[in-house]
Amino acid sequence: MATRVFSDEELGALRSFPAIGKDELIRYFTLTPADEGFSRKFVRPQTVLGAAVQLCTLPAGLWPDEVPSAPSAAAVGRLARQLGLPVEVLRGYVVSREQTRTDHLRQVAKYLGWRSAKSLELKDLDEFLLARAMEHDSPSLLFRLGC
Question: Which of 29, 140, 139, 13 is nearest to 74 (CA)?
């Protein structure tokens, strides 16, 4: 029988956007000229803004399932102003095929220079988490440490 690590509420929180403070807003939701150029390659206004949201959320440690659910008053508003787009276009970032958001996410990760972990790195992570598991009896803490 499978054991659940997270409650439905915890899973919902992991899949959605948390409150974003002023420091995070400035640190993660400010596009460089190169970031803006990357985002604009997606052409349609909704995909430009959707890609920009993903570009800013990954380094912040966020990867929500619903990109249009980003906090529009703060984060999306800031990005929309930088890109000269209305905030409302993000609602149009409802993709016609499920794989599109994932494809965009992969392109963003590649642009950021992220890559899949190699076996030696996964072994290091495994050893690190095993040592922490001896200290803590909290699967959710181990998950956060692993992230």
Answer: 29
Q: Could you tell me the residue ranges of all domains in the chain? A: 8-115, 116-147
Helices vs. strands in the chain: H and E counts, helices first: 8, 0
Q: Are 144 and 6 in contact (CB under 8 A)?
A: no
CA 86 to chain centroid, in Å, comes to 21
Closest CA to 88 of 57, 49, 39: 49
- The pTM for the full model equals 0.75
CA distance 64 to 18: 10
* CA distances, 59 to each of 7, 24, 55, 96, 114 (Å): 25, 11, 8, 26, 10
Contact of 142 with 133, CB cutoff 8 Å: yes
Q: What is the pLDDT of residues 81-140, one digit of tens each?
A: 999 999 988 888 866 566 777 888 889 999 999 888 899 999 998 999 888 888 887 777
Per 3-state DSSP, the chain is made up of helix, strand and coil in percentages (nearest 5) of 65, 0, 35
Burial of 133 (0-12, 13-18, 19+ CB in 10 A): middle
